[in-house]
Write a structure and sequence with these properties.
Length: 243
């Protein structure tokens, strides 16, 4: 019987394994375009933060408390980076979803010792509407639960509990998000995916926690989604969900 410690280790190991998997021949082609998408999206996010965040915080405080900006800015920046980069990750995932679906399929073939299936370029564009619909449903699921938690983080006293809960739920959601590509290739859809991940929340949250850290870290977040898709595919494979 696998104990909780081993389950947690499995989640972490699978994410790390994703680094090597996306570098395999036949897989890299599904990483390049999502990487370019991430460069553009996170470039815009970083520019907006640099241009507006400091002025916004300065205007938020009375002029006689302007000196607090230098003290609060590091904490404010870390919190804002986490929320903004995470939000832009969800947007990037919607756009890159068709490529991540093929990425998961290629990684699964490698794990099973099979040849990576050839993909016609036209098929990617046919899948855009289908995968976007699934992604938008997941984002709706996330926002309906995460936004109330984020609102609670600004309420003194309650925020001590709300922020850890938001981080925990976000970690769970990322495991749900990234494992979905491989599971959908096997016609395992939204509700079934939730049930499968609920069977082992420890490995899911440990995997999602490392994914959350990577997707909210500047520069690392450019490649983190592809790593997470590959790692989640391995996690599902190790659990016997891709038979």
């Amino acid at each position: 019987m696998i104990n909780k410690r081993n389950k947690m280790t499995l989640g972490l190991q699978c994410f790390i394994a994703g680094i090597g998997l996306i570098q395999r021949p036949g897989v890299r082609r599904f990483v390049i375009l999502p990487l370019l998408i991430n460069v553009v999206i996170f470039g815009v996010a970083s520019w907006m933060l640099w241009l507006y965040a400091f002025d916004w915080l300065s205007n938020l405080l009375p002029s006689w408390l302007g000196w607090l900006v230098n003290i609060l800015m590091p904490l404010f920046t870390i919190s804002l980076l986490t929320v903004v980069y995470f939000s832009f990750t969800l947007l990037a995932n919607v756009i890159a979803a068709p490529f991540y679906s093929h990425l998961a399929n290629s990684v699964e073939a490698i794990l099973k010792g099979e040849e990576i299936p050839e993909v016609e370029s036209s098929s990617i564009f046919k899948e855009i509407m289908l995968t976007m619909g699934s992604e938008l449903r997941k984002i709706t699921y996330y926002l309906l639960r995460a936004l109330p938690l984020l609102v609670l983080t600004i309420i003194p006293g309650i925020n001590v509990i709300a922020l850890p809960l938001w981080l925990l739920f976000s970690a769970w959601f990322l495991a749900f998000e990234y494992s979905g590509y491989a599971l959908e290739n096997h016609k395992i859809l939204f509700q079934q995916q939730r049930l499968l991940l609920s069977e082992d929340r420890v490995s899911a949250i440990s995997f999602g926690g490392l994914s959350l850290l990577a997707t909210t870290t500047p520069f690392i977040n450019l490649i983190a989604p592809a790593v997470a898709v590959a790692g989640a595919t391995k996690l599902m494979y190790e659990k016997g969900k891709l038979n």
